[in-house]
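Can you give me the bound-state structure? Components:
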Amino acid sequence: MSLSFDFVQPQPEAAADRVTLFADVILPLPLPRLYTYRVPFELNDQVVVGGRVIVQFGAKKTLSCIVAAVHETPPTLYQAKYILEFIDDAPVVTQPQLKLFRWMADYYLCTLGEVINAALPSALKLSSESRVQLHPAFEPDNHPYPLGDQEQKVVDALSTGEEGKSMTFTEVGELLGIASFHKYIKSLMQKDVVFLFEHLKDKFAPKVVKKVRLAHHYVSEAAIEQLFGQLASRAKQLDVVMRYLQRVPVYQSEHANHRGMDKAALTSAPHLSPSAVNTLIKNGILEQFDQIVSRFPLDEDDAQANMHFTLSDTQVEARDAVMREFQTKDIVLLHGVTGAGKTEIYIDLIKQALDGGGQVLYLLPEIALTAQIVTRLMRVFGSRLGVYHSKFSDNERVEVWNGVLSGRFQVVVGVRSAVFLPFDNLALTIVDEEHESSYKQYDPAPRYNAREVALMMAHFQGSKTLLGSATPAVETYYQARAGRYGLVSLTKRFGEAGLPEIVLVDTRKSREQKTMLNHFTPELMAEMESKLAQQEQVILFQNRRGYAPFINCLDCGWIPKCTNCAVSLSYHKQAHELRCHYCGHHDRMPAQCPACGSRNVKTVGFGTEKIEDDLKVMLPQANVQRMDLDTTRAKNSYQQIISDFEQQKTNVLVGTQMVTKGLDFANVSLVGIINADSIIHYPDFRAHERAFQMFVQVSGRAGRKGKKGKVIIQTGDPEQVIFDKVIRNDYLEFYEYEITQRREHGYPPFMRIIRLTVKHVDVTVGERAARLLTQELVDRLGREAVLGPEAPYIFRIRNFYLQEITIKLSREHTVLKAAKADLMAALDVIRDQKEFKQVRLAADVDPM
DNA sequence: AGCACGCCGACT
DNA sequence: GTCGGCGTGCTC
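Here's the bound-state model for the whole set.
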């Protein structure tokens, strides 16, 4: 701003106050910096921080990106290109979000572009390759909104050719012959004429329900009167019409008739004839139409009926304690045993937060976000509830995103990535099962933990956060003990169900005595038989999928290995394949040893598939179902397995971790952990914690609603200290033991860990890069802060050789910040060496 | 992440 | 002689 003097008259033609604006944008690419584009002067008033703009990036790419800042400082080193177009007139990313994204990039050592990439549903990230397609529900001659000329051109182009034809943005631009065509696409989207998708594979497959309504010329009392006369001799048809009028208040509002009712409710109702319904449709009395429905249908009547439920005394007490803690603390840990009824407490707190006018985010791990819980929440919160699930299509995610922006959804229940939703007025954040490792994203950066991100987001927005778990993460409990988090314990199980009896069975002894029946001890076998005889159900937990972790030729010792990874191939019997669990590589199962031709090839070890297989032979009367990654890959198979078990169509459920989470089955009286040792003896400082959590969680599946359950843990080493704590379900004792270990060995929560992985196709280059990086780190951070480099147990994945360096840092903020700067500098040293140009470096902050 | 520019092998 | 391999460097 320059000084101005009174006597200097403004020159009218010079437009002295003409400001040139520049926008710093976040490109959805892993680039370290923001890029500055120039705002076309006539569009100055359209720039919104948090809105999307279209820019040309590089020679031929056009991209949408997020405006992070607007200013008047022209770049000095280059000529800024112009922004091509503005997509939004209001932010799609809110201010608190931008702040959060910056924090994430900083904390997790990644770029803002990577954060944006993980955060935005891909339909919000437009590029010249984005595609449009006519909406399946669009009817050209029965469309409520008029279309402009340009819009009509697009619709015409999309309707000629085969069904479901799509065009890229580039093609739309060519068709219209103008550069600024996005506004037409946007308008067409708002009118539900077209929808967007990014790749050919994510085409929209909406769920359509057939509905019927009364033809519009019957919607008046007189007309209906006349209709009754007309149908007087056709009793079946009359019944249908009567039922329709009963269910749909046609007289009260024409709108109600327009919405109609489910056809299935008429055709499948008792005493009503489906053919009568069809005759009515044929005669033009009823009309049939399709409606696209959400995955979680809400029955309005249900919503009213279930609004109110009462908390038990224990629950009221716990809720009040949480609220008391919230008066002085922003974060509260609700430590409640499985089955203590935490969900009801959450619902109660959500209601209060909503009454106060704030938004609520309720995070759940993926396996716990079931239709059961969603329907339950739907009943209470109805259309104010948004659901964000990873199995949803991109269009559905955008709908939730926009719903949060517009205020339509005040509560969102969702998985890890729901922390990215554009809240601006969060009052309450709930992270249920906060210890769950699935909150942590591993592979593409940002390698974030949604629990930590949620805490930071809540902090930025002044929201309270409730962390819930039966087996809190050691780090979390430590914070609560230290008084930084409030702590509320809920120890009584709901409905008086006692804790299950937990029994250890020594597999080593059984093996010596040769009493093992395949992988079952006689004790587990006998108990299963007895429970099944009493018509009760059994869950078996085996933390390894497939049939066997490897196969072995008994004559020459040949073991098939993955060609891309340093692992043996697992045998999958059903698929008759050898598979790599790390890269997806698979071969046909050979009929004989390819090395020596012997047919003496045996499977070694066992996974869920073998357990299932053995049981089918050993317990022929039982119905055995397996639930693991392999059997739940298809869209609804998880739900199918659960409901079959719920309805007791299956008696034994064998599965991996999937069976440990949040499933409430009233009739399960026995849980078996087939091999506890593989879980405990894992080369990682969190092995005991994970084992404790797993055992307690899976034990929680046994015995509910008054029945006392039994848990049998098979182990070759029953003396392990951890079992003692599991048996007595003594979290506190486990915690005390574990925290001492952590303090002694300098692990979290006392130190912060950053794991660097160096990857290269050539072992020696990778090793050299890792050694140099270690040296650079030692020079900057000191010898004691750096461990490694070391090849991990699985030292090659997807043809990349791995080296790991572990950095241990003090948790002090200033130290951490300086250390990260040092770390980045050390990484740059590697990147600058020609020899290491092909080295891939990944930083994982707080690895799990 | 793309994509263009650029320098060395098997083909018309 | 050219077409094309993918190494590396840049994108406001």
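A couple of observations. The domain at 22-124 of chain A is CATH 3.40.1440.60 (GIY-YIG endonuclease). Chain A has 27 helices and 34 strands.
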